[in-house]
């Protein structure tokens, strides 16, 4: 089958028989392969009642959710690019009569999610969990019961940790600076911390999904859709994130041909295995939520 050019088969720019409900931002695909070529998401359709055979370029940035019907497959690159741009993906039955997505919540259990929700909904218990999180970081339970005070103490601890760990690896440290609108403007140490933090958060995402806890319900972080992920990842900021960031920064500084992001990504994979980070996160989440290894309350 011949490939289409970028524009003639591009949804929204040319006629296409692929149903696209603009009002809901949904794109239904069936019987074909979703893949990436040269940074562009494509759907190679085998042909069906809804989609003529052909190779279609998909404007994933403008779509809220892609629904894959029967007879479809997807590549790893496609999953990566959809995740990066926040495009949701689900497998569905013919016409949407079934809904399949992964990962399942706690392997079909809801008890951990309910335990999480109960702790989060109770203001006193929520603070208790937050204090335990800080206790893991400080090695002791702090007497303070004001979350703002605890955050301030943690901020001071981190400032000291930045300097100590930067000195350990011989990295010149000018302070933590991060512009969300222009992350590449940061100096290499700050860029390295951003990259390392992203990878540690991904590990926390996996641990939380495995346990079946609720990512939006954070005990320290608030308002974010992955607030609990940030809570969990931050418990390893001094032990994993910063040493990972500064050690790779020092190595890359002596070899400008190396990519900082790529080197941190490769090194993170090694560190996660060496330190058994994800299993440790799983155990920590269960401990925080007062559940045992079977997912029940002790």
From TrEMBL:
GO terms for molecular function: DNA binding; DNA endonuclease activity; hydrolase activity; metal ion binding. It is an enzyme of class 3 (hydrolase). Transmembrane segments: none annotated. Its EC number is 3.1.-.-. Gene3D superfamilies: CRISPR-associated endonuclease Cas1, C-terminal domain, CRISPR-associated endonuclease Cas1, N-terminal domain. Belongs to the CRISPR-associated endonuclease Cas1 family. Homodimer, forms a heterotetramer with a Cas2 homodimer. This is CRISPR-associated endonuclease Cas1. The keyword Manganese applies. Mn(2+) binds at residues 154, 221, 234. The lineage of its organism: Bacteria, Pseudomonadati, Pseudomonadota, Gammaproteobacteria, Methylococcales. It holds the Pfam family Cas_Cas1.
């Amino acid at each position: 089958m011949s490939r289409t050019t970028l524009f003639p088969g591009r949804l929204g720019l040319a006629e296409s028989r692929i149903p696209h409900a603009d009002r809901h931002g949904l794109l239904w695909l069936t019987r074909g392969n979703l893949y990436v070529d040269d940074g562009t998401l494509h759907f190679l359709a085998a042909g069906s009642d809804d989609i003529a055979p052909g190779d279609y370029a998909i404007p994933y940035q403008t779509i809220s959710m892609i629904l894959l019907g029967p007879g479809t497959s997807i590549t790893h690159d496609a999953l990566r690019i959809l995740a990066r741009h926040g495009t949701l993906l689900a497998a569905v039955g013919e016409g949407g009569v079934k809904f399949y997505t992964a990962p399942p919540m706690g392997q079909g259990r809801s008890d951990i999610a309910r335990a999480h929700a109960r702790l989060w909904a109770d203001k006193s218990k929520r603070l208790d969990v937050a204090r335990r999180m800080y206790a893991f970081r400080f090695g002791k339970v702090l007497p303070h019961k004001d979350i703002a005070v605890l955050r301030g103490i943690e901020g001071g601890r981190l400032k000291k940790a930045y300097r100590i760990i930067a000195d350990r690896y011989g990295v010149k440290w000018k302070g933590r600076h991060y512009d969300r609108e222009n992350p590449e403007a940061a100096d290499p140490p700050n860029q390295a911390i951003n990259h390392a933090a992203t990878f540690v958060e991904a590990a926390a995402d996996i641990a939380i999904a495995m346990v079946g806890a609720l990512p939006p319900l954070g005990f320290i972080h608030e308002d974010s859709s992955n607030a609990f992920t940030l809570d969990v990842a931050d418990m390893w900021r001094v032990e994993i994130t910063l040493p990972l960031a500064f050690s790779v920064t020092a190595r890359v500084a002596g070899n400008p041909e190396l990519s900082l992001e790529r080197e941190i990504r490769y090194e993170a994979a090694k560190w996660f295995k060496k330190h058994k980070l994800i299993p440790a996160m799983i155990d920590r989440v269960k401990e925080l939520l007062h559940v045992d290894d079977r997912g029940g309350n002790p």
